[in-house]
Amino acid sequence: MTTARARAHSTGRLPGKNGADQRSPGRARIMGVLLILLSLIPAVLCYVAFASWLPSDREHYREYRAAEPCPAHATAQLKSDCLSTRRFTVMKTVIKTGKTSTYEAILKDGDSWRGVVDFGDPGPLLDRLQPGDRVTATVWRRDIVVLSKDAIRQNSSDAPRDELQMNAAFGMLAALVAAQAFTFGAVRLVRPRDHKPFTWNPYGKQLLIAGVATCFGVGLPAVWIGVPWWTVPTVGVPVAVCAAGLLHHRLRTRAAGGV
Question: What is the pTM of this model?
C-alpha cells in the first residue's frame, strides 16, 4: 500500500525554478506578445520627439532669435511676431526653494491688469525686485519673455531656449525603453521556458535605471556645455548598449557561480 502511494506520488511534476513560467510556456508567450505590443508606445513617443517635438522647438527658438523690435505704429498682427516692450509695476515676488521651487513676479500695469511671470531661477533680477519697482517687460507672441530693470535682464520661463539636447535625451530614453520591452518580449516568444536573465528583476530594473541615468547623464551636461543636440544620441546609445552588455555579463557570471 505504501509502495503504491509512493509510485502515485512520484508521477507528479516538481515545480521548476522559474515557477509557472516553466510549466506554462503559453503564458510566457502571451506575456511576450504583450511586451512587444507595449514597446510600440515608447517607440511612437521616440518618433514624436525626434520628428515633431525637437524640430518644432528648434524652429520656435529660431523665430524668437530672429524677431526684431516692433515699429512705432505696428498692427496687432505684426506685434505678435515682433518684440514689444511694456512698463509694469511689481506688486510682489515669490521665491520658494525646496522640493518644489517657485520663482514668480506678480506685476500690474496702470489699468486693472495683473499677471504672474514665472522664472526658472531667483537671479539675477528676481531676487532684487521690491514691491513698487518699475520694470520693463519684453513681450513676444503675447508672452513676457524678458524682465529688465536698471540694465539687469532675466529670461522668464516662457522665453524660448536652445535646449534641444533634453528633447533628444527624452527621445533616446523612449527608444531605449522600446528596445528593452521588445527584446524581453521576443525572448519570451523564442524561449518561453528559459528566458533568464531577461526578466524584470534584476536585469530589467537595472537596465531601466541605467537607461535613465545615461539619458540625464549625457543630456544635462550637453545643455550646460552647449554641444549640438545630435551628440546626445551619438554618445548616449553606445553608452547604454555597453551598460546593458556589462550587466548581462555580470548576471551570467553570477549564475555560473563566478565572482
Answer: 0.77
